[in-house]
């Protein structure tokens, strides 16, 4: 929800999955091919005298993370994340999301391979904004947000796989590791028509794997840097989750059932005003260059943004509990997730929510020894 993925890591090769809209298909296919053409193997970058030493150090780190992903987390060992592309733009793609004025359920778009998903990706921010405006004319609440990384689900490994991108190479070490783990998790398993299952699974893998990386591979400075980075995200995420629940209650209220829309609008406005007021308090307690990291998210906050965030959070506790029950054994965990994926959609959700438990200490981001744990948030 930060820049991630700042909502980091939406798996979004929508156009290459196929589309009846030829214009959309063309921008998707050409956009991804342009990204692939910009990619060069990491060893080439390391030998390039024109590449900065800072970039080279980051690229060497990505390759250690990449090796760890397969050796320690059981993630696919393939060409993905062994090349680097400088995109010269702030995002890999821009996603468009939309929802009705009194609902958190996202509008979906359907594609032959990816199935139905609650977002539509564009390689041009202008095209994304135009799509969002068209959706607003239909009476929907729409938003556009940047995506620094996405997964081709393994379909493009024959052509070099998914590269490391300039859009996230500068992130703190722990976040860089989490992005790679998240996107590789999509290559382990992807269920058509179930964005929440897919994204929650990948988020659980990134959280557990990221904590393991920081505990066993990172130094104290990297742990401190990540704790500062993640602490604000957790505080903000808790606020977003509380607001989303409040909005859900409003849309299920007796006033909504009676179609008393003026009353519903008043309650909705009050919830959104409280959200922004509480964010202002949070922001005032932060300092440094990332003080305004979530300003853009708050500015565009609406039903669509709250609905989109739910896909990344809703089922994560269930997946974390499943990892624990499988003895923290990655192959057993992946096998159990595949069994869940074979269930009907409602059965997957029921099983994960029924067994969800708070994560153990080993699935939390480790704290530096001198960090105040009381300020970490949820």
Task: Write a brief structural summary.
With 378 residues, this protein is mainly alpha-helical.
Count of individual domains: 1
DSSP summary, beta strand count: 8
| Protein structure class | mainly alpha
- Report strand %: 5-15%
Could you give the order of strands across the largest sheet?
Answer: 1-2-8
Order of helices and strands: HEHHEEEEEHEEHHHHHHHHHH
- Major beta-sheet overview: 3 strands, mixed
Rg calculated over all Cα atoms: 20 Å
What would the average pLDDT be, to the nearest integer? 88
Task: Outline the low-pLDDT stretches.
Answer: 1-20, 359-378
Number of separate helices: 14
- How much helicity do the residues have? 40-55%
Characteristics of this structure?
378 residues; mainly alpha; three-stranded mixed beta sheet; three-stranded antiparallel beta sheet; 54% helix; 8% strand; globular; disordered N terminus; disordered C terminus
Topology:
Blueprint lengths: L21 H17 E3 H6 L5 H21 L9 E3 L7 E7 L9 E3 L3 E3 L2 E3 L2 H13 L3 E7 L16 E2 L7 H16 L6 H22 L3 H32 L2 H4 L3 H24 L10 H5 L3 H11 L2 H10 L4 H12 L3 H11 L23
Parallel strand pairs: 2-8
Antiparallel strand pairs: 1-2, 3-6, 3-7, 4-5
Helix pairs in contact: 3-5, 5-6, 6-11, 6-12, 7-9, 7-11, 12-13, 12-14
Description:
- The strands form 3 sheets. This protein has a 3-stranded mixed sheet with strand order 1-2-8. The chain has a 3-stranded antiparallel sheet with strand order 6-3-7.
- It has one domain (15-375).
- Helices cover 54% and strands 8% of the residues.
- The chain is mainly α and 378 residues long.
- It starts with 21 loop residues before the first helix and ends in a 23-residue tail after the last helix.
- Helix 6 crosses helix 11.
- The chain has helices spanning 22-38, 42-47, 53-73, 125-137, 173-188, 195-216, 220-251, 254-257, 261-284, 295-299, 303-313, 316-325, 330-341, 345-355, and strands spanning 39-41, 83-85, 93-99, 109-111, 115-117, 120-122, 141-147, 164-165.
- The longest helix has 32 residues, at 220-251.
- The model is unreliable at 1-20 and 359-378 (pLDDT under 50).
């Amino acid at each position: 929800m930060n820049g991630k993925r700042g909502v980091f890591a939406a798996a979004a090769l929508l156009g290459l999955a196929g589309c009846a809209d030829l214009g959309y298909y063309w921008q998707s296919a050409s956009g991804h091919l342009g990204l692939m053409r910009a990619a060069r193997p990491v060893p080439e970058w390391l030998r390039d005298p024109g590449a900065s030493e800072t970039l080279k150090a980051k690229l060497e780190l990505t390759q250690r993370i990449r090796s760890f992903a397969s050796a320690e987390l059981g993630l696919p060992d393939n060409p993905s994340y062994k090349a680097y592309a400088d995109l010269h733009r702030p995002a890999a793609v821009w996603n468009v999301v939309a929802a009705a004025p009194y609902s958190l359920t996202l509008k979906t778009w359907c594609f032959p391979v990816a199935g139905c998903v609650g977002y539509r990706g564009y390689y041009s921010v202008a095209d994304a904004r135009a799509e969002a405006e068209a959706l607003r004319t239909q009476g929907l609440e729409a938003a556009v947000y940047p995506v620094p990384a996405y997964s081709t689900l393994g379909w493009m490994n024959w052509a070099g796989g998914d590269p490391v991108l300039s859009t996230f190479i500068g992130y703190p070490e722990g976040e860089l590791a989490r992005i790679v783990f998240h996107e590789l998790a999509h290559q382990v398993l992807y269920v058509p028509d179930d964005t929440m299952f897919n994204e929650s699974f990948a988020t659980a893998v990134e959280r557990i794997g990221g904590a393991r990386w920081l505990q066993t591979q990172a130094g104290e400075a990297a742990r401190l840097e990540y704790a500062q980075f993640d602490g604000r995200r957790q505080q903000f995420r808790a606020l977003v989750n509380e607001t989303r629940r409040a909005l859900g209650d409003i849309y299920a209220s007796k006033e909504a059932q009676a179609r008393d829309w003026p009353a519903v609008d008043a309650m909705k406005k009050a919830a959104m005003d409280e959200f922004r007021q509480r964010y202002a308090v949070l922001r005032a307690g932060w300092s440094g260059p990332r003080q305004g990291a979530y300003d853009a998210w708050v500015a565009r906050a609406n039903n669509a943004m709250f609905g989109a965030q739910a896909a990344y959070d809703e089922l994560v506790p269930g997946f974390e509990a499943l990892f624990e029950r499988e003895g923290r054994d990655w192959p057993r965990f992946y096998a159990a997730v595949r069994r869940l994926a074979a269930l009907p959609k409602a059965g997957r959700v029921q099983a994960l929510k029924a067994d969800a438990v708070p994560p153990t200490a080993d699935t939390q981001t480790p704290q530096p020894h001198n960090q105040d744990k009381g300020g970490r948030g949820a």
